[in-house]
Specification:
By secondary structure, the chain is α/β, with parallel strands linked by helices. It is built from 10 helices and 11 strands.
Amino acid sequence: MRKSRAAALCFAVLAAAFFSGAAWAAEELSINGSTTILPFAQSTAEAFMKISPGTRVSVSGGGSGNGAKALIDGVTSIAAMSREMKAEEITAAKEKGRNPVQHIVAVDCIVPIVHPSNPVSDLTADQLRDIYSGKITNWKEVGGPDKSIAVIGRDTSSGTYEVWNEKIMEGTPVTPRALISASSGALVQSVAGNTLSIGYDSLGYVNEKIVKALTIEGVKGTPDVARSGTIITSRKLFMYTDGNPTGEVKKYLDFLVSDDGQKYVAREGFVTLK
């Protein structure tokens, strides 16, 4: 009896050591960067961990610029970016021995948004530029009420800001009167809470129950329009790796762009590759 108990105890200890070792051996995969990409990065990470239980995936936001910096510094497996990596970021990476490789994971377009009570429904690119530069300050100048415009934008570390700055602002400085929002979700909430506000955000973040999306020169932001590039603010969404991905990083990216992975992109309101 004592021998059988001792054998059972020995087996239990060995089994615990084995499974504990397996847990410690789990591969860590981290994704850092764009708050635009955050929703489907999180949902695909959760789905991936179910099909690859030996891998732990952590996801954090902070903006595309922070994602690029994390990859440059070697503290993330994947940089999530809603813009392309800049030439100076690629140079900084190579100076540290990194080799950023781009992967297109979804499509998007940025849409102007206002409070649902605002009668304005369409603006031109020039009008948007004039509003954000401070040249136009009253809604009556663009067909709205005789009220001051509350301008809401994104911080400079945001990829959404970078694309808006390039395609709408064309480098024109944003008015210092603008309220700056630190994330895509926070911007939508800010616009929803102010009847005189205007903002811009990813198509995937537009909640038509609390904000109204404007057309740009008559073009409505839709998945097909985003894919075709017929709206001025269309863009691709990226993930970057240090060199060609291998192991669990490659498996995750392959899953993300697969039909199964792209279902999560669509479920979160974003535009699939196909």
